[in-house]
Amino acid sequence: xxxxxxxxxxxxxxxxxxxxxxxxxxxxxxxxxxxxxxxxxxxxxxxxxxxxxxxxxxxxxxxxxxxxxxxxxxxxxxxxxxxxxxxxxxxxxxxxxxxxxxxxxxxxxxxxxxxxxxxxxxxxxxxxxxxxxxxxxxxxxxxx
Length: 144
Known about the structure:
Elements: E1 5-6, H1 12-16, E2 23-24, H2 26-39, H3 55-58, H4 66-84, E3 88-98, E4 112-123, E5 129-139
Antiparallel strand pairs: 1-2, 3-4, 4-5
């Protein structure tokens, strides 16, 4: 099956001028969807309030332990992938904290986090392995 996948962000100016929109392959299209799922808070997309993941609900909650944060993000993102990215099967999400290279003193260490989120899955159409990985730079707001 030959499908057309459009590259994000979609710019409507060229389309209105009669030009074709840039396209991409299935792998890039899936990566774009995963990126959007990760960076979208539940309820942010008015057309589908279930689109997104729990990261933004957990990140600024000071009562959530690091282990609960990692577990919550993994479970939330895996469920979002199963629901919204049907081109993937058996998604497995892992989260790793890295040391912050550009620390701002005198903020506490846990106010600044570098997180690597990795998704491993199978492409449904071909059963080939698929891997997506991105870094997030998270930080708390501080009045110091």
